[in-house]
Design goal:
Strands 1-2-3-4 form a 4-stranded antiparallel sheet, with helices on one face. The longest helix has 14 residues, at 52-65. The chain is built from 2 helices and 4 strands; from the N terminus they run E-E-E-E-H-H. With 82 residues, the protein is an alpha+beta fold. It is globular. It has one domain.
Length: 82
């Protein structure tokens, strides 16, 4: 069964779409995040390679669009003291 996507954002990295998607929780479960790469509509085989700058851009867009929850952002702030 395919996962239902709640929200997603992506950035282009040299023709590869780097994407973060939120997957709503199942009954009583916890929501999850999927980070993936796609090229020409197909999943990229192997790991998604991002520079720190690209990762920051992807996380920034995800926080603004609601892909990342306020709870996640708060916990991240606590962990890295920002």
């Amino acid at each position: 069964m395919a996962n239902k996507i709640g929200a997603s954002v992506s950035i282009d990295i040299a023709g590869v779409e780097a994407r973060i998607e939120s997957i709503p929780a199942d009954e009583g479960g916890q929501a999850t995040l999927r980070i993936s790469g796609r090229q020409k509509g197909k999943s990229v085989a192997g790991p998604l390679m991002l520079s720190e700058k690209q990762l920051i851009e992807l996380l920034y867009k995800a926080s603004l669009s609601g892909v990342l929850s306020n709870n996640f952002i708060g916990q991240l702030r606590e962990k890295i003291e920002i």
